[in-house]
Amino acid sequence: MEATNPESVVQESTSECSSNGNGKTAARSPSEHALFVDPNEPKLDHVDLPRIEAAVRSILSAVGEDPERDGLLETPARVARMYAEMFAGMRSDPGRHLAKVFEEDYDEIVLVRDISFCSMCEHHLLPFTGHAHIAYLPSGKVVGLSKLARVVEEVARRPQVQERLTQTLADLVENRLSARGVAVVCEATHSCMTIRGVRKPGSLCVTSAMRGIFRDDPKSRSEVLGLINHKV
């Protein structure tokens, strides 16, 4: 079975026709196609899709399934595209989203709470999903709030543990924004713990990473954690 190129999927899905006023239809131009592509999205290239497909077929055969039956025939290609999407953050620099800053005379806490994410546990290749809360104390410059969400989204797209995800987010915000303090708290449910093994649905893993004044000053740390935990 021929592998599917992720980029061709985007091109095919956007190659719709539009009316030209004469009752006829015309394909959109390349410039119009570009309107449907988010330039901030990490690229899906550099992934060996045929190799993943072959591995999935082997797994299906190993568990006693028939990879050639109708319901599973296209499954290897779907799984390959899924991994390309889930691991798209491996070869990108999420810090690029923090390059555009604004000079602002503001020296209090900036907090964005409840940024949803889905990442992949590197131990079992099962997803863990949850929310990240990011706070920083500016040193004369701030960043667009949506950029923090983009950083979370991109850092999450790689195999990892939650502890590393949390530390990576804190380091990026501290280094790219030269923030005087950074606090990151992540809360997530791990399917490797809820659907297999110990099987404890409802369990929640909470991790934190403190940098700068939030690490060194107990009062500042207490203040930012109070904001993070405050429910409106």
CATH topology of the largest domain: GTP Cyclohydrolase I, domain 2
Q: Average pLDDT value?
A: 87
Identify low-pLDDT runs.
1-20, 24-36
Please identify the oligomeric state. Answer: single chain
* Largest sheet properties: 5 strands, mixed
Distance between the termini: 53 Å
Report helical residue fraction.
25-40%
Q: How many domain units?
A: 2
Q: Taking Cα atoms only, what radius of gyration do you get, to the nearest Å?
A: 22 Å
Walk across the major sheet and give the strand order: 7-4-5-8-9
Tertiary shape: elongated
The string of secondary-structure elements, in order, is: HEEHHHEEEEHEHEHEHH
Query: Which structural class is indicated by helix and strand composition?
Result: alpha+beta
The CATH architecture term of the largest domain is 2-Layer Sandwich
SS element count, helices: 9
**DSSP strand content:** 15-25%
3D architecture notes:
The chain is α+β, with helices and mostly antiparallel strands and 232 residues long. It has two domains: 6-86, GTP cyclohydrolase I, N-terminal domain (GTP Cyclohydrolase I, Chain A, domain 1, Orthogonal Bundle); 97-229, GTP cyclohydrolase I, C-terminal domain/NADPH-dependent 7-cyano-7-deazaguanine reductase, N-terminal domain (GTP Cyclohydrolase I, domain 2, 2-Layer Sandwich). 37% of the residues lie in helices and 24% in strands. It has helices at 6-13, 30-33, 49-62, 75-86, 145-156, 162-177, 191-194, 213-216, 218-229; strands at 17-19, 25-27, 101-103, 110-121, 127-137, 141-143, 159-160, 181-190, 205-212. It has a five-stranded mixed beta sheet, sandwiched between helices. A hairpin with a 5-residue loop joins strand 4 and strand 5 (127-137). The termini are far apart. The model is unreliable at 1-20 and 24-36 (pLDDT under 50).
